[in-house]
Amino acid sequence: MKNLKINGLLLGFAVLITACSFVSLNPQAENVTVAANTNLANNCKFLGNTNVSIWAKADTFQSQKSAESQLDTLARNEAATMGGNTVMAESAANDGRRTYGVYNCPTKQLQ
């Protein structure tokens, strides 16, 4: 009976984890955009790369789309600290990791 209660608690905890977002957007990063168009960066100043990752096992608890969204959020947070206003994925998401280019783009181009 004790094992059944422990297993029930563990199952409940796993369900709770899957419903939660692990990453939050910093207020400084609210204006940082995620660019999907590789041509967007042509008129932008490249500031460097950032490698972001979520807990390696966290992506097994959620969809690929959710994991990628969290990686985007982490990249936006990093871009804000680097003085950038745009990030662009430079690699595929793999094992909860992804590399992004950080850019400072003219604001007209982002509209």
Secondary-structure topology with pairs:
Elements: H1 2-19, E1 33-35, E2 45-53, H2 64-82, E3 86-89, E4 97-104, H3 107-110
Parallel strand pairs: 1-3
Antiparallel strand pairs: 2-4, 3-4
Summarize the structure.
With 111 residues, the chain is of the alpha+beta class. It has helices spanning 2-19, 64-82, 107-110, and strands at residues 33-35, 45-53, 86-89, 97-104.
Characterise the protein shown here:
The protein has 111 residues and is of the alpha+beta class. The chain has a single domain, classed as Translation Initiation Factor IF3. The chain is built from 3 helices and 4 strands. The chain has helices spanning 2-19, 64-82, 107-110, and strands at residues 33-35, 45-53, 86-89, 97-104. It has a 4-stranded mixed beta sheet with strand order 1-3-4-2, with helices on one face. The longest helix is centred in the middle third of the chain and has 19 residues, at 64-82. The radius of gyration is 17 Å and the shape is globular. The termini are far apart.
Describe this protein with a few key phrases.
Translation Initiation Factor IF3; 3 helices; 4 strands; four-stranded mixed beta sheet; alpha+beta; globular; single chain; 111 residues
Which structural class should the secondary elements be placed in?
Answer: alpha+beta
Kindly state the mean pLDDT as a whole number? 80
How much strand content do the residues show?
Answer: 15-25%
User: Strand order of the main beta sheet, please?
Assistant: 1-3-4-2
The rounded distance between the terminal residues' Cα atoms is 60 Å
| Level-2 CATH architecture | 2-Layer Sandwich
Element order, helices and strands? HEEHEEH
The first-level CATH class is given as Alpha Beta
Total DSSP helices? 3
CA gyration radius, whole angstroms: 17 Å
Total individual domains: 1
| Major β-sheet annotation | 4 strands, mixed
Shape: globular
Can you tell me the CATH topology? Translation Initiation Factor IF3
